[in-house]
Design a protein that fits this description.
Length: about 325
């Protein structure tokens, strides 16, 4: 049996479609655990309208999405576990695809997802497999690319229970990545990734993507620290470390500009480079991340000039994306 966990908070617009997509699965041996996380809208009433013995409802005070998932993990009855956000859906054959891949010599299964904006477009990622956790450690650059999302995963309940795996409630972004890495370290059999679509992720209406995190730099650093711990890395300049930190630096510069004022962006970028990542940054990482002029501004601690030059140099990654983000927020109002 599969336990399908659905955390729900103020999801009245989408929860019905989400539940129907699960109930309509071609694979029927499942339970749905819906955790109503202190919703103040009509979410609970909509959930209660469903008359199906496979649905279990937990009503609790608002504690956040990680808390809601942890509450459900405490009571799962299924042999396997998967998660579906209340504003997303799954194709009718999703559970069947996942369960068919979970053979005796497999501990962890992941499918692909549609990113639904105005139309559905498959996430571009190839099928892949790893012999076990040790193989994943050797191929960390390849493996970690599959660990960032939780949509369309199938976990073994015994591994979750035996090692008491839970979501980190101290953060509200990146907790899926950390959970996946923690789970992976306890696997002894194969880890399988298929590019078959098993999830529909509604990008525009997804709640977390509309929230802004000034501590995004510290969230990303925390995830990096977890990777180092679980995969036995030291703070050395491995290819993975250089690529990972470089990608993070570019992401954070663009993330802050898209979501905050120019003045706030400058301050947050300075904090990122001078404080959060200061012990990791080296010339190799800077050369991977920025232009020579931008590197010079960093060395001069001139983050106003650095930020303005970055925006000017990469308008598609900054100005255009900021415009598109504002359109998205307007649609959601």
């Amino acid at each position: 049996m599969i336990s399908v966990i659905v955390p729900a908070y103020n999801a009245e617009k989408y929860i019905k479609k989400c539940i129907k997509s699960i109930l309509n699965q071609t694979y029927s041996n499942f339970e749905i655990i819906i955790v109503n996380d202190g919703s103040t809208d009509n979410t609970l009433n909509i959930i209660n309208e469903f008359n199906d013995k496979r649905i279990r409802i937990i009503n609790q005070k608002n504690g956040g999405v990680s808390n809601a998932k942890n509450t459900a993990l405490d009571i799962i009855k299924g042999d396997y576990v998967t998660f579906v956000d209340s504003d997303d859906t799954i194709p009718k054959d999703a559970l069947e695809i996942l369960i068919n891949l979970m053979t005796d010599d497999v501990d962890f299964v992941s499918g692909n997802y549609n990113e639904v904006k105005f139309i559905a477009k498959p996430h571009k990622i190839a099928s892949n497999s790893f012999k076990n956790y040790e193989d994943a450690k050797k191929r960390i650059q390849e493996f970690d690319k599959y660990m960032w999302w939780q949509a369309g995963r199938l976990y073994k309940s015994d591994i979750i229970k035996n090692f008491h795996l839970r979501f980190d409630q101290s953060i509200s972004l990146g907790e899926d990545h950390i959970f996946n890495l923690n789970y992976a370290q306890h696997t002894s059999e194969k880890i399988i990734f298929t590019n078959k679509i098993v999830y529909n992720y509604y990008y525009i209406r997804n709640g977390l993507t509309t929230r802004f995190y000034k501590d995004m730099n510290r969230i990303q650093r925390k995830i990096y620290n977890v990777i180092c711990k679980l995969f036995c890395f030291d703070k050395i300049n491995t290819d993975f470390t250089n690529d990972y930190i470089s990608t993070n630096l570019n992401f954070l510069v663009e993330y802050y500009y898209i979501r905050y004022s120019l003045e706030e962006t400058i301050q947050l970028i300075e904090d990122t480079i001078e404080n959060v990542y200061v012990d990791l940054i080296n010339d190799s990482i800077l050369e991977k991340s920025f232009t020579n002029k931008q590197i010079q501004y960093i060395k001069e601690h001139n983050y106003t000039a650095f930020t303005k030059d970055y925006i000017k140099t990469f308008p598609k990654k900054t100005i255009w994306r900021k415009f598109k983000n504002n359109i998205k927020l307007f649609i959601l109002k």
